[in-house]
Amino acid sequence: MIEKDIWERIRCPACHAGRLTQAEHTALCPNCGVRYPISAGRPVLLCPDNALFSIDDYVRTVPPDDAPRSALARLVPSPSVNLSRDSTLYAMRDRLDGMGDCTILVVGSGRQRGWLTPLMQAKRPHALVYTDIDLGADVDIFCDGHDLPFVDGSFDAVITTAVLEHVLYPERVALEIGRVLRTGGVLYSELPFMQQVHEGAYDFTRYSLSGHRRLFRQFAELQSGMAAGPATALVWAIENFALAFFSGRHARLMAKVVVRCLFFWLKYFDYLLVRRPEAMDGASCTFFLGIKSDKPVDDADIIRHYVGAKHLQHV
Q: pLDDT by residue (tens digit) across 47-97?
């Protein structure tokens, strides 16, 4: 169930005008009259005219269970590393700990609750609000990142990992993230760059580190860099090369298992490459940690601070 403090931060995603009135199974906007269902304690706060996701599809959904992964899934190695997440989230947590008890919005949370909440609450009882559009996600609120259903400046921090490549209008979602963060609020973002399609039709965009920085130009940078490097990108490429020869689900699964078992070790070269600017041009994924600022960063400044090997001069 949504805590009272969080309900007070929610606004109608359709008219943006009013806070919602909560009932047992619905939430009502007194301004425009739209009713939003509450499914298993989780409000479904989608605009009625959303072109891709219908409110009706979320009625009677149940929270996902915490069933462990199959033995095969546990044995097959991952094709990638993450060089930044733990250390950068620790830095983010330390900053938030110094601000008191904070409220953190997770945009596109997936199934992160199990590890993210203990990490962020290690020292202070920060409140985390988990949101996603995915029916299978472990969320507090179903919503679309293009229309975050929260009043301006509602949160002290936002975490979004591997999400904005799956939205139709990433800049609009980035602006929404900035809107719901208070000035001085902290953002942690991860975005893929050299990485193949991994969410089918819901896979639209990739970002270099410079593009990632510009997407969040309303933030002052604390840290940015490589989350996974060209070695991880290579394993992804080998896997997708193999998968190109198979169409059946079981055959593709077997090909994936074989490739990962044979080539997973290549990803560890990223630990040798993480400090090399030359590796950034082929990074599999980048990260950005920043503070919401009153003044957007200048485009020329982003160009000046490019990290990589291909330093070009067009003018």
A: 999 989 999 999 878 888 776 666 667 789 999 999 999 999 999 999 999
- Total domains, the chain: 2
> What is the pLDDT at residue 239?
98
Distance separating alpha carbons of residues 292 and 306, to the nearest angstrom: 21
- Same domain flag for 42 and 134: no
What percent of the residues of the chain are helix, what percent strand, and what percent coil, each to the nearest 5?
35, 20, 45
Confidence of residue 252 (pLDDT cuts 50, 70, 90): very high
9 and 156, same domain (yes or no)? no
Whether 63 maps to a domain, the answer reads no
Q: Return the residue matching tokens 């290549």.
A: 266
Give the domain extent around 18: 4-58
Residue 312 lies in a domain: no
Whole-angstrom distance, CA of residue 110 vs CA of residue 133: 9
Retrieve residue 124's tokens: 């202070």
Question: Coil, strand, or helix at residue 253?
Answer: helix
204: left (phi over 0), alpha (psi -120 to 50) or beta: alpha
Residues 33 and 96 in one domain: no
Q: Is residue 91 part of a domain?
A: yes
CA atoms within 13 A of residue 106's CA, in its CB half-sphere: 26
Instruction: Give yes or no: residues 51 and 86 share one domain.
Output: no
Q: Do residues 113 and 221 both lie within one domain?
A: yes
By percentage, how much of the chain surpasses pLDDT 90?
86
In the sheet where 35-39 sits, what is the strand order?
Answer: 21-22, 26-28, 35-39, 42-45, 141-143, 127-132, 103-107, 155-161, 181-192, 285-292, 219-228
Same domain, 216 and 114: yes
* Domain identity same for 212 and 296: yes
10 Cβ contact list (under 8 Å, min separation 6)? 2, 19, 20, 27, 43, 45, 141, 149, 150, 151
